[in-house]
Every structure is written in C-alpha cells, then in structure tokens.
UniProtKB/TrEMBL annotation:
Protein's name according to its UniProt entry: Aromatic ring-hydroxylating dioxygenase subunit alpha
Keyword Iron-sulfur among record annotations: yes
Region (Disordered): 1-20
Organism of origin: Pseudolabrys taiwanensis
PANTHER family reported for this sequence: 3-KETOSTEROID-9-ALPHA-MONOOXYGENASE, OXYGENASE COMPONENT, IRON-SULFUR DOMAIN CONTAINING PROTEIN
One Pfam family from the record: Rieske
Superkingdom to which the source organism belongs: Bacteria
Biased composition (Low complexity): 9-20
Keywords, comma-separated and alphabetical: 2Fe-2S, Dioxygenase, Iron, Iron-sulfur, Metal-binding, Oxidoreductase
Length: 359
C-alpha cells in the first residue's frame, strides 16, 4: 500500500507590523522626506569662500560654491575620519579636509589622499551629495529617503518665478518644531487677534466660519463670507515641496500691486528648531515695480518684521507633544486636515521603506 507524506507549506516571510502612530510622529519630527526645502539664503555662501556647515532636517550639511559660483551641498563629513568638511578649505573645484588633506570633489568622489596616494579610498564616491538649485535668492535642496535619492523637478509658484511679480525674501531661525509654524500659517483667524494692531490686519469680523476647498495639489482653508478684508485664507500646497500661500489686502497707502502675497516655507533644523522662508510678493511691473520696492524698503519692511516677531514670540520654545493638551474647534479644521495629511504621507513612506528593507 502506497504511503503519502504531508508536504510542508512553503515558508512565508511574516508581514511586518504597520508603523505605529509614535513611529510616524518621530519620523515627522525632523521633516517630511521626498520634498524640496529651502535651506539658506543664497547670499550666505560666497563664490570661493569658506565652506559653511549647517543642520537641516537633522542632517549635517556643508555648503560651498565652486569657482564658477555653482552651489554645492554635501554631507558635512570627511570619509576618512568623519570630521566636518566645513572646517576644511574650498579649493575652487573641491574641498580639502584640514585634518589629513583628503580632497573631495563636487560629486562626492575622493580625488586625492595625500598621505597615501593610490589608497583604495581614492576614486570612491564616499560623500553624499544632495541635489540642489537656487531660486528667488534661496538655496533649495532635495531631501529624499533611501528609495528616492533622485530628485524630481520642482515647479515653483509663479510668484517666485514669473517676471510679473516682485518679491523680497525674509529668513529667520525659530526655536520651535517645524510643524507648529505650518499650523500657524494654516490658522487665518490668529491674524485677527495676534496681529490686530498691524496696519494690514486691523479690519474684519472677530468671528468667522471656515470651509475647506480642494485643489489639485492641496487645499484652501478660508473664511466664508469674508474676502480681501484681513488674513482670510491659506492654501496648503504639496508639489514636490511643501509650502503655504496666503494673501493680505493692502490699503492704497501701501502702493501699487493689489493684495500682498506671502509664500511661506518652513524647514526643520532638528526636532526643536526650524527656519522660516517668507517671500513677500506683489504683482507689479515697470515703474510700479520700482515704486513698490522703494515703499517696501523704506516704509513697510520694518512693520512686517514686527508682525513676524509676534508669531515667533508666540511659538518660541514650544516642544513636540503639545497636541495632547489642545482642545480644538471649528477654526482649527485646516490644521487638523493638514496634520492628518502629513501623518498619512509619513506613514506611506515608512511602510515603503519597511517593505524594501531600508529601515
């Protein structure tokens, strides 16, 4: 009589658990990856000047310009002994580490090891190099995860790229987690109270109802029944870069150009600090452009810095985790939606990294 044997089932790899809420929030604490971020005003890095070391999204970076003026952004770490390359020397076409003279090219390749010519380190691409470009007087960098190191194109808002607009960049470091600055931008109602003494935000009802409106790359959060009176709406945009667009109405004394627009980016430094990039914009050309720029520098800029300082003082020193103490209401619907969206994006990235074995 023939005997049969039970076949063992094929071995299967157990499914990895989905990212927890705690893991998602920890991942977001230093920024959402796979996005372009402004990291510094262009004027901070001079052609042929000393390399500059900064931290963005929790990563140590070295910035330098080669002899042609092209910006270079790399990991701030010599591949030999891991000391900061920002303490080295800009040789025009490469960085030379001050510790042992190791030379690194703009693509991250080790070009020379003077102490041991011909050693295996030479010719090796050993320093991470970040995709970067410059726009509207700022340096932008792609922060991709392990699966998205190649940068997609960035289509900037027309307010920063079209000659029909004139803009001024306002840059500042803030002692607050980056997401609280985005919360602030997606909260139009705070303008009615915090900025009530501002020459552009003293009008309008102190009560309001809000609604959301979808766009192809984000959503509007706007007051119903009030427009072009105060800080009446915000638009969250996520188009390979995360930023907020808003407008403030201007009195005739503010000069030509209609409403005053702000394009706001917030770039994490680490878990507790960030830097803001606010482009103040008006749609002007010809002689009106010259009038607007003159009025801004002589009469308006100081007032805008005062408004910005009010925001900074409110947010300064906040630490992650305040959400558990909040009691939100209808005015906060834009913040709630944005937070959910960011958590969703972070969860998707973490899941993809887990499945690819990159965590």
């Amino acid at each position: 009589m023939a005997t049969t044997t039970l076949e063992r089932p094929a071995a299967t790899t157990p499914a990895k658990p989905a990212p927890t809420d705690q893991q998602v929030q920890a991942y977001l604490s230093t920024g959402l990856r796979n996005r372009w971020y402004p990291i510094l005003p262009s004027r901070f890095v001079e052609t042929g000047g000393k390399p500059l070391g900064i931290t963005r999204l929790g990563e140590k970076l070295v910035l330098w310009r080669d002899a042609t003026g092209t910006i270079r952004v790399q990991a701030d770490r010599c591949p030999h002994r891991a000391v900061p390359l920002s303490r080295g020397i800009n040789e025009g076409d490469r960085l030379r580490c001050n510790y042992h003279g190791v030379e690194v090219g703009p693509d991250g390749k080790v070009l020379a090891v003077p102490g041991q010519p011909g050693c295996p380190l030479e010719g090796k691409k050993a320093v991470k190099t970040y995709p970067s470009f410059e726009l509207a007087n700022a340096i932008f960098v792609w922060f991709g995860d392990a699966l998205h190191e190649e940068a997609p194109p960035f289509t900037p808002p027309e307010q920063l790229s079209s000659p029909e607009y004139s803009n001024f960049l306002c840059y500042a470091d803030w002692g607050t987690p980056w997401r609280y600055a985005f919360d602030n931008l997606m909260d139009p109602m705070h303008g009615t109270y915090l900025h009530a003494v501002s020459h552009t935000m003293y009008q309008g009802d102190t009560k309001a109802q809000f609604a959301t409106r979808d766009t192809p790359k984000g959503f509007f959060f706007e007051k119903t029944g009030q427009r072009d009176v105060n800080f009446d709406w915000s638009e969250l945009v996520d188009d390979n870069a995360l930023y907020v667009r808003l407008e403030i109405p201007y009195p005739p004394a503010g000069g030509p150009g209609g409403n005053f627009a702000i394009i706001g980016f917030g770039t994490p430094i680490d878990t507790d600090k960030m830097c803001v990039f606010f482009w103040r914009v008006r749609k002007v050309s010809g002689w009106q452009r010259d009038v607007w720029r003159f009025l801004y520098k002589t009469n308006i800029e100081e007032r805008h810095w005062h408004v910005l300082e009010q925001d900074r003082e409110i947010l300064d020193g906040l630490k992650p985790g305040l959400e558990k103490h909040e009691m939100l209401y209808q005015h906060d619907a834009g913040i709630i939606r944005m937070r959910r969206y960011l958590a969703q994006q972070a969860r998707m990235q973490l899941t993809e990294l887990q499945q690819a074995g990159k965590l």
